[in-house]
Predict the structure of Glyoxylate/hydroxypyruvate reductase A.
Amino acid sequence: MDIIYYHPSFNPEVWLSGMRKRLPSTHVRLWQPGDDGPADYALVRQPPVEMLQGRNDLKALFAIGAGVDDVLDQLKLHPDMLAPQIPLFRLKDTGMALQMQEYALYHVLGWFRRFPEYQQQKQQHYWHPLKPRRHSEFSIGIMGAGVLGKSVAECLRPFGFPLRCWSRTAKQLDGVTSFYGDDQRQAFLSGSQVLINLLPSTPQTVGIINRALMRQLPHGAFILNLARGAHLIEGDLLAALDDGEIGGAALDVFATEPLSTEHPFWRHPAVAITPHNAAVTLPEAAMDDIASAILKLEAGEIPPGRVDRQLGY
């Protein structure tokens, strides 16, 4: 069995040696330009077109990440890059859920306890206790009810915040009020004091967090974008912040990365920024997941994480 690997920034030796250890009878190699040798499986992030083009005998392609938009974006430009019969798999969790929980909890509790406002007071040498918020009035809305959305809801449940989620199709989460479809989105938004975005990246979700959506949130609501920069219309957020419609935002993903040093987000006092690291791929857990999936495929089974290319997740 042959596996080819490509990632633009990961240390390849970690993955090559790790996959050989997990699948000792397998030949694992780093793909390099000109390599058209045999391959049963491919492990990729932002794969070059020539890596996959013509490899119609691949048994499966594994995206090294929670999202697969890098592969799907390439397929839009080069539809023949990956034959339609070749299954595409994404990582289901591999430690990302816990990281997302930590990130969401930090910002939600910070906004609830008004810590960003106190930080601004500190910079002004201003001592003034602010009115405490009530848990029952600080509702959290999660867009996206997949593995990560469910995980974030689970970590917030013990704090007594009213929880709600919105997804494309009906989903049931314990202790969470569920909404689904376009018809129920306004009702979901109108009751969400904090909006956490964990939607998949699809053509239908591009630009979904726009001024019209923000105006459906309660006045002074907060936005936490943990999914993709393409979901957010950045100029609309800046305008809503300046008009006081949105009380603050925490952003881990952006339309263009790295974020330009001239971007107004850097200077805006109500915007928190991190460099797309809310949840990073943990190689050991990811390799365990992929190796297990390959063994299932070799045994004729279908592992979890298969992507519907039409839906985008």
